[in-house]
Amino acid sequence: MTQVSLSSGSIIVADWHRCKDSKEYFSKILHKKRRKNFGLLESPVMPPHVAVDTVHYKIFLSGKSGVGKTALAARLAGLNIPNMHYETTGIETTVVYWPVKLRDNGRVLFFRLQLWDCGENALRRFDHLLPACKEQVDAVLFLFSFTDRTSFDDLSNQIAKWTGAPVGRVVKLVVGTKFDLFMHCDVAERDVRNFQETWSVPVLRVGGEVSDGLGDVASLLNCLAEHLWHQDCVSARRHSQQETGTVL
């Protein structure tokens, strides 16, 4: 099923984290100007007079070993990125909270994104891990490294694992890591454009350098939130139409 391509800012307010009216919300995911680390049972606490709904999503990170899945999860959560690469031995989960403002009605939502990261070798060795990752998943981020051509060539195999009826409707985004390592770049922009046209999947880019600000992750988290919310709206409309048809 072809995924609808959304233009940035069509559903949510782009760069809302830079606006004055967002400070009250983003302050709840920050501590001393750094991101708060939320456990599985923790959440941002808003004042009683501010009503904010939280929407929950499960996100799986897919990609070859060494492309930066664990590092991306840490970056999106504002955690320290490991200096040394190590193979994830099982399933690791990371919770990310991200506030967004809907463009059509000004409603503010907290997106709770639970990121699932599983090592490639572990997926091969244990048959039960991939079904566990696929269960009730809402989105998949397919990762490749701009410094590893084989990881880019493997994207079609990665996506094929997530195509078909058992998976259901899942948001699919591709993330190219190590984009700022120009001297070691092994994937041309022409190849990325051709891939986007062939697969109709957005390709996002992240570098290796990290700052403490929100700008590093805003574009990726906003794009993910936008596609997730759009998918929910489409599913809700379809469900409503089916109920109407049943009544008639």
TrEMBL record:
SUPFAM superfamilies: P-loop containing nucleoside triphosphate hydrolases. It is found in: Cytoplasm, Cytoskeleton, Cilium basal body. PROSITE patterns: RAB. Keywords: Cell projection, Cilium, Cilium biogenesis/degradation, Cytoplasm, Cytoskeleton, Exocytosis, GTP-binding, Nucleotide-binding, Protein transport, Transport. One of its GO terms (molecular function) is GTP binding. GO terms for biological process: cell projection organization; exocytosis; protein transport. Belongs to the small GTPase superfamily. Rab family. This is Ciliogenesis and planar polarity effector 2. It comes from Pagothenia borchgrevinki (Bald rockcod).
